[in-house]
Amino acid sequence: MAGPLESLIQSGTKLWLDSVEPELVVKNRALGATGATSNPIIVADIIQSGRFDDTLTELAERGLSDEEIAWALTDHLVRNAQKVFEPVWRETDGEDGYVSFELDPLLEDTELAPPHDERVKRYIELGQRWAEGHDNRMIKVPATPAGIDALEELVASGVTVNVTLVFSDRQYLAARDAVWRGAQRRANLRHFKSVYSIFVSRVDVYTDKHVPELSPEAQGQVGIVNAKRIWRMNREFWRERQAGRDDLKLHQEMIFASTGTKKPEDPKDKYVAAFAGSDIQTNPPATNDAVEAGGRTYHATIEQMPPQTVLNEINAKVDFERLEKTLMREGLVKFADPQKALLNLVAEKRNALAKTG
């Protein structure tokens, strides 16, 4: 009998790890994970552990700035994870086995960000730089106005993108169309791959706070409904594009992100179970541990929706335009602040290590 995570994978889900911590990458690869993703919080936690003090000291002695050290360590961690998942990338001929690398979140900081056109230019420059020479690296680009405006050029130049911070169908549609325009500018589509990370649990946190009038049957279901609707849009769009083409073989997939539950009373596998059966889930290590410990067997549920009465209530009571604006405003703070914290941590670490060296 298949274990819980094994049954989730057998249902049709690709399991990616929301971490590049070396030991967790190896552990979760053994459990069936076939990809991973990185962000400043993950990198900061790894640096805080002290495991890379020698590497940090070496980089500081070479004269690198705090920012350069942070990116060098991020690159190092992502490269290590890429090595673990590279066999998957080769076995699937580029369908799976990726590790995501997040571009500079400070490009969206409310105080430090440059003007729009400069941000677009920087996203393109950084995306091409960090992607160069990496077959199984995805470049994470946020679904902000500047990020979306950079997508066409990035994809046209051969970069594999993971469009992140997606909360609404409007964002998804704008990002997807930009990606497709860029793809059509390539000489061929043999290695064209893109993914779209739809955030789930944050949507339910929003409705708890801003739409308290939802019934108990609808409250806590909006994140799932929203993500499944966008998943269907994505599946139908790319099926139409693939029809009759031999070169567009790789699937352009949704990533169900933010799958850790926020409410203590919710089952730890609430979102994991809801999206079983298709595309990709990037689960935090604790979520994977809880799933494996739960002993549950998973079956495909991706096509299942709540009753029509619940869907009608969500349509009537949830202002998705307001939801997107609110979550993007909060999301950009959560996007930029961890990068500032990472830079501060590097500065503190290098100073402390210099004193004890």
Labels describing this entry:
357 residues, alpha/beta, 8-stranded parallel beta barrel
CATH topology: TIM Barrel
Strand share of the residues? 5-15%
CATH-level-4 superfamily name: Aldolase class I
CATH class: Alpha Beta
What is the topology?
Layout: H1 4-10, E1 14-17, H2 22-30, E2 35-37, H3 40-48, H4 53-61, H5 66-91, E3 99-102, H6 116-131, E4 137-142, H7 145-156, E5 161-166, H8 169-184, E6 194-199, H9 201-210, H10 222-242, E7 253-257, H11 270-274, E8 280-283, H12 285-294, H13 308-317, H14 320-356
Parallel strand pairs: 1-2, 1-8, 2-3, 3-4, 4-5, 5-6, 6-7, 7-8
What this model shows, in words?
- The chain is α/β, with parallel strands linked by helices.
- It has one domain (4-356): Aldolase class I (TIM Barrel), CATH 3.20.20.70.
- It has helices spanning 4-10, 22-30, 40-48, 53-61, 66-91, 116-131, 145-156, 169-184, 201-210, 222-242, 270-274, 285-294, 308-317, 320-356, and strands spanning 14-17, 35-37, 99-102, 137-142, 161-166, 194-199, 253-257, 280-283.
- Strands 1-2-3-4-5-6-7-8 form an 8-stranded parallel beta barrel, surrounded by 9 helices.
- The longest helix has 37 residues, at 320-356.
- The mean pLDDT is 95.
